Amino acid sequence: MSTFSVPVIEYTLEKHPNADVLSIAKIKNTDWQCIVKTSEFQNEPRAIGVYVKTDSIAAKDNPFLAFLEGKKIKTVRLRGVISQGILIPGSKVEQAIGRPLVLDEDLAKELHVRKYEAPVNNVIGCCDAIAAPPDFISYTEIENIKNFPDIFMENEEVFVTEKLHGTNVRYGLIDNVFYIGSHHRALRLENYKNTTGEDVFIKRTAWHNIAEDIKIKEKLQEMQAVLNTNSLIVFGEIFGRGIQDLHYGQTAYTFRLFDIAVDGRYLPPKERYEMANQFMIETVPVLYTGPMNKGILDLRLGKDTISQTHIREGIIIEPTTPRFDISLGRVKLKCVSEDYLLRKNATDFDG
User: Fold this and answer.
1) What is the pLDDT of residues 210-221, one digit of tens each?
2) The CATH fold of domain 122-342
3) Which CATH architecture has domain 8-115?
4) Would you say the pTM of this structure is higher than 0.85?
């Protein structure tokens, strides 16, 4: 499960190959790095700093991040080297807060830094949210592999799929009741009366239209009979022109499944794909199955598989045999393309 923090970390400095006054700060125990001014770090008494990650936002008057003018931190390339995040020297933060820093503590609240929240794309439809049963779970944010670079064992069998840039959707059948949900909301399916007794007609959304187009309720009912379950949810991505800046050559909204939960348990990847194929539900592209190796991370690069017209967003890596890690939870990680993060005119709408 992905959680936001502004941690106190240890780092090492390496000389920037193309700039005498800059260094590359490597965040210990991760694969993250950011570019810093050498002069601000070379006399630090301890190699400890506060790491503010990409997609963080601080107030305009933040003493350390005022230069951002309230804008979110993005991936950038400085003198030819990727920089992701901002590292603040530990001594400066200690002076500001009046106490020593503790390794691994989270300073998000103390430094008034929050995670950027993507806006909702109302172009694809906005519908009233409803209360849903606890079993109609939302899909958790997937952690970046840079946070857990050693999580996969050498030669562990893994399943790698393409990460698509669209909007999250979930369709569920819980105790024989059909539900539609975006990433964060369960959506109304029927017209209703408001508090004054007036009829309110719901607005159709991309999530509703896709459900009808692929007949997902009927397919869930058939799948439920085979699996003999009271709780069944399929998770997927809706993409196409008008969803995000990457449309994969699709003029109409298109759906691809990426996960299935049965009674709250996610199916193993191969079983998931067999089930989807059996009921003719299209899935996100599979890029690799086999033993884990560092070269697999290069699959994040290149063109998308569906249309060969866009930068690939990245990949999702999971063990062929599902497992959990005490520090991570479910082992399923993303690896995002730097070219994708650096693209111009990017959109990142949420649901």
Assistant:
1) 999 999 999 999
2) D-amino Acid Aminotransferase; Chain A, domain 1 (3.30.470)
3) Beta Barrel (2.40)
4) yes
